[in-house]
Each structure stands twice: as structure tokens, then as C-alpha cells.
Write a structure and sequence with these properties.
Layout: H1 2-42, H2 47-74, E1 78-89, E2 96-107, E3 112-119, E4 125-131, E5 136-142, E6 149-159, E7 164-175, E8 183-187, E9 194-202, E10 211-217, E11 225-232, E12 234-237, E13 241-249, E14 256-260, H3 265-269
Parallel strand pairs: 1-9
Antiparallel strand pairs: 1-2, 2-7, 3-6, 4-7, 5-6, 8-14, 9-13, 10-11, 10-14, 12-13
Helix pairs in contact: 1-2
Length: 271
Amino acid sequence: MTWFSDALRSAHRLSNSISVFRNLWWLLLAVGGGGVVAWRLGRAGGWYLTVGTVLAVLGVVTLAAGIVMMRRASIAPYTWESAEYVYRFDGDDPRRQVQLTKIKIRANRDDVAFFRNRYYWTGQGESRLLPLNGHRVVAERVAMDSQRRYYYVLLDRPLNRGDTAVIQIRQELFDEERTFQPVLAKSLNEPVGRLTLRVIYPAGLEPRHVVARELVRSRNPEADWRTVHERDAEIESTGETTEAIFVANDPRTGRRYALYWGPWGNYTKTT
């Protein structure tokens, strides 16, 4: 997938270049228009007044145009309206796991064609990403410093400002080395309107206790996160499965939301 990652980065660079040229065009148009207005206003006041007026107007117009361009560049291409993560363990072999991800986004500008997400899996073994609703995963990469995995999704159609899309991803996992840690967590680097975490355990593998936690970055160098809120997770049971649920409305950016159920001896004892 290396060549595809390079192609994707090239596409992003081309898109950014087009945006830069478009912004420069609007800047030149604004400056030119301001110059014409200043010249007409200053004609009656003599040469010195004309030059002074032109310089003043051009300065104001350039400053205003620069502020507008910077604000446009700082706007994210889309906003996460909701995100749902459902994690399920196979009843016959809990090392086989499936995560279903469903994310709704709203475009903040025109021509939004790609979606990016990341994940970190504590298991060791196979991992496959399968888009479910017409979109395509076109590139994946691993950050060497954190071992987080990033993936890029090509939307089935480009979004214009205000358009919405739902990205659904099925992730099939096999924890061959049994290193999976009993937690499902999402760290928010971007605003999300509503976050839902669900873990589904087969009969006989349900933990004794599941807690829902909200965490912030810790100032302690020996700990990455510090719990600020904790409560028992909502539990639903059908007899065949037990489901733990954590719903966060208007979660805060920069925080981590998680379901914890360790220690989990049932998992390590399975064959």
C-alpha cells in the first residue's frame, strides 16, 4: 500500500495547492478593488492624499484578506456528528474479535473526498479493515512512535459544505498472542457530538464488573491518563450475550472515554 499512500499524499498536496491559488486570486482581486476605490477617493485631494489613501486602503484590505485566508485554512474539512464503536467476541474462540465502527460526518467545505481515522489495538495478530457502505479504505499506515494505526477512506462521493455521510467499517481481528487488554476506549482529538461505546460478551465470558470512565491527560510522567469521572456501565443481557454500554453526549475534546472490565481471567483461560 506504500504507492497508494504516496498517491494519497500527492492528492492532498494538489488539493492544498489549488486552495492556495484560489485564495491568492481572491486576495489580488480584493487588493486591486481596494486600490481602484482609493484612487477615485483621492483624486480630488491631490497627489499626496491619493498615495496616502491608496496605501492605507491597501493595508486594511490586505490585513482583512489575510485574516480570512487564515481562518479558512484552519477549518477542519468535516465535523464528527456522532461515533459508535461496537466490540464483539466470538463465542467459540474469543481471540476472534470484531469491531464495528459507525461515524457520521458533516462537511465544513466543498469537495471533501477523504475521511481519516485511527486506532490502537492491544492484541497481537491479524487485523483487517472492511468498509460496509460503498466507501473504500485506500491507505493504511502505522505511527512508529505510538504504534497507532491510521487509515484513509475514499468516500463514495465528494461532499459539499453541509452534506453528511456515514462511514461504516468492520474490523476483523485475531489475537493470536492473547495480549488483548480488557478495555474499549476512544481518545478525542476532534469534537464529536455523541460518542457510544458498546462491548458484547458471549455467555460464559462476561466479566464480573464493567466501569465507564472519563479521563484527562495526567501530569504524572508515569501515567498517561487520570480518571475524572467513573460509574458503573449500563448492562443489558439476553441470556446468550451480555452487553456493556457507555454513551457520552457532547463529550469533551482532548479527553478519553472508555469501558474497563479488568482483571478478566475468563479470557486467558479460554482455549
